[in-house]
Target: Olfactory receptor
Amino acid sequence: MYFFLGHLAFLDMCYSSVTLPKILVNFLRQQQTISYRECMAQMFFLMSCSGAEGTLLAVMAFDRYAAICKPLHYIYIMNKKVCVPLATVSWLWGILNSTMHTFLTTNVSFCGDNQIYHIFCDVPPLLKIACSDTYINEIILHLASVFMGMSPFLSIVISYLYILLAILRIHSNTGRHKAFSTCTSHLVMVIIYFGMANLNYNRPRAGYSLEVDTLVSTLYCILTPMLNPLIYSLRNQDMKGALRRALGWHEKDNASPRTQPGVD
Model:
């Protein structure tokens, strides 16, 4: 699990590094511009991280399935020879997705006032300002969202169906709670990520507005990478203890003081 969490943490840093520096620079400058090459590069790396994270979440769901449904064989199922190829496939899946969209976008013509009504370069706002036909691009965008986005999501759903069946077979409530608690952080991340991705890429073109785009994109590319470490850290007991001390929530010691016999 921690091997994949390391890749997820690196992905979150890449997310922030792709978008936030340019956003901050443009916020502080009078003239908010980005070159064509910078725009294409930003879109490529942004979609690479997006596709890789969706696949990585599916891999982490399989990891939870192996831990709960096959606990005695977990160390053999999720060994190094399996984890490294799974992580590599996650990265390659994201790069393949972004390469396809970047190539199609470079064939789109832009003319007149090339002002992007967005906080960073992404496929939907770029297609909105194009002066050539973007029908193929929009079809490919929705198809990629269905196949390349839904494939990891369906894998997650199937994994959790098996996990749910395994948890229901546990007789004790303590055992059920312990098994389910190992999945809560991952489930929250899946809901946030795929929910925001669906809103960002699967809305009809007529429904786009600057306010909605900015809000959804901020949640998708800025807030989500920030929340991921917090969601997993709050399951750590040391992190919880540090948070309680920082907020002044001191636990009362209800145990009665022990008396030690004196020694002459």
User: Anything to note?
Assistant: The chain has nine helices and no strands. The radius of gyration is 23 Å. Residues 252-264 have pLDDT under 50 and may be disordered.
